[in-house]
Amino acid sequence: MVFGETIQLNTKGYSDIKDITGDVEKIISKSKIKNGIVNVFAIGSTASVTTIEYEPALVEDVREHLNKLIPSDMKSRHSETWGDDNGFSHIRATLMGPGINVPLVSSKMLLGTWQQIVVIDHDNNPRQRKIFVQIVGE
């Protein structure tokens, strides 16, 4: 069986991090699928999906270190070509990846105690993000 649904959320950009674990759990419940794989995928080229311990200090650490690794004021050919100054956001999203797969066992995602699913919006403007959740299983 396959079941899918879209999550929509508003983000602030500049590696704004949003916890979507509860939203994904609601979709799993609707699906009635008990065992399989949950795919969580960011639609767009300037956002990422990953897992972290979603707590305020770590959220700020992640944002700070992303900016050290790939500064938002970096010069990029993309920004020069398109004039949107968001080349950094594409690079961050490319390195982190647009999605993850999580095992589903007995209607529960196989996540650690302190492991939440997050969306990171790397763009340089607020956005309404769409995240597609697809569950494949039985």
Produce the secondary structure layout:
Elements: E1 2-11, E2 16-19, H1 21-31, E3 36-43, E4 47-52, H2 56-69, H3 77-82, H4 87-96, E5 99-105, E6 108-109, E7 116-121, E8 127-137
Antiparallel strand pairs: 1-8, 2-7, 3-5, 3-8, 4-7, 5-6
Kindly describe this structure:
The chain has 138 residues and is α+β, with helices and mostly antiparallel strands. It has a single domain (2-137), classed as Sandwich (Jelly Rolls), CATH 2.60.120. It has helices spanning 21-31, 56-69, 77-82, 87-96, and strands spanning 2-11, 16-19, 36-43, 47-52, 99-105, 108-109, 116-121, 127-137. The strands form two sheets. The chain has a five-stranded antiparallel β-sheet, covered by helices on one side. It starts with a strand and ends with a strand.
In short:
The protein has 138 residues and is α+β, with helices and mostly antiparallel strands.
Instruction: Count up the domains.
Output: 1
List unreliable stretches of 5+ residues.
Answer: none
* CATH architecture verdict: Sandwich
Indicate the proportion of strand residues.
35-45%
What is the average per-residue confidence, as pLDDT, rounded to a whole number?
A: 96
Helix content: 25-40%
For the secondary structure, the number of strands is: 8
The CATH homology group name: YjbQ-like
How do the strands line up in the largest sheet?
Answer: 1-8-3-5-6
CATH topology grouping: Jelly Rolls
Largest sheet: 5 strands, antiparallel
What is the distance, rounded to the nearest whole angstrom, between the alpha carbons of the first and last residues?
6 Å
Summed up, the helix count is 4
CATH class: Mainly Beta
Gyration radius from CA atoms, angstroms = 16 Å
Report the structural category.
Answer: alpha+beta
**Shape, per Cα inertia axes:** elongated
Order of helices and strands: EEHEEHHHEEEE
